[in-house]
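Recap slide: Exostosin GT47 domain-containing protein, sequence and predicted structure.
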Amino acid sequence: MVEHQQQQQIKRVPRARGFYVRMKLLSTTKNGGRLVPQLEKKGFFYRYCKWVLWLSLSLYFFSSFLISNHNEQQNKPTTSLSTTHFSTFASRALFESAAINNTTQQGALFDGLKIYVYDLPPKYNTDWLKNERCSTHLFASEVAIHRTLLTSDALTVDPYEADFFFVPVYVSCNFSTINGFPAIGHARSLIASAIDYVRVEYPFWDRSHGADHVFVAAHDFASCFHTMEDVAISDGIPGFLKNSIVLQTFGVKHHHPCQEVENVVIPPYVSPGKVRATLEKSPITGRRDIFAFFRGKMEVHPKNISGRFYSKRVRTELWRKYNGDRRFYLQRHRFAGYQSEIARSKFCLCPLGWAPWSPRLVESVALGCVPVIIADGIRLPFDDVVPWAEISVNVAEKDVGKLAEILEHVAATNLTSIQKNLRDPRVRGALLFSDRVQEGDATWNVLSALTAKLARSHRRSRVSSQ
């Protein structure tokens, strides 16, 4: 069903238009050209014959219309992905208008990039959407990218003209009944099963050994599929993914086994709707009465889990050093409206958790708060597009005890300049996944990154060799 909806939204076949015929029978005599004088003499019989003839012709044209329309519908590819799962899709008129405006730009910028989205059984993706959190939590980029690709100009319904093949498997929506966090212990088996399905149903995986296939792994340590780094490293990336392209939130500048795959570092998911709602109440140029802000998990006494300390003790040090410091607004408990606190803050602390990255990176930038990144060696999303050095402050993990002095220095020197850079809507929009691809947004940057990898396209390499 995916291709059916895609073609309905992207390549609408013009439908035959209904019409009616208005007729008037003229009865004539030989003198005046009348051919049926008897009908005039018998008015009732004449009207009856005219009515029967009119009805017969109307039925004929109506049945022709139905047959024509039915044939058009039969010729359309079918898809299994119901629009009820993706209620945020814009109306057809809005989409077609946007497509017209973006077609030329995308075609030029993305070198004619074409992506085929596999139509997998719903157990791999849309069945998980029964839980509303699946499309809104921090790992939901796997849903957002699937959603926007289905309405992108880069989409093709002909797999033989595709440069890349997107495999839509949602592995982050299996929420633990104990703590509510995503449990990804099933990820390897679910993705392996999806690949087996693709290999049986389509010929494209085996011809390139998966090199032109794209997956999303928006988890702590990406396609190593584990929260604890040492276990993730020990397990490594499963062999069936090592030859493919992975869109992942994890990235570091040094060698790491969990990024030993062709990859693109993408931002974690933050709802653009929530950001808009927050900015409506607290404009980005509004008053910022909080100097430094953090809300999240901070262990007073860090838990030693088999030798592993959460956040490498950075968050514990933050709490011990600055709890009670009037310049710092630190909170350890969850609050649904915490984005309003970000919108009131000058600096937003973004320390590592189990992994280096954090959704606070995106929320801070989107809401105009200077992100203070405390995660050594982190690779930031879309670093070839987003001017991270001009919109953020980096603090080494070992220097967290000097954080107050560092931020005071920034506030006294170039805070105004950094805030001005953050107000650029292009910077803020680059990290958000829109409902539809918009120029410069997160999915746009994913497409741009894939364009740079077109050498992996089996179709392109075959054409160039001819």
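The first strand starts at residue 115 and ends at 117.
Residues 83-265 form one domain.
(End of recap.)
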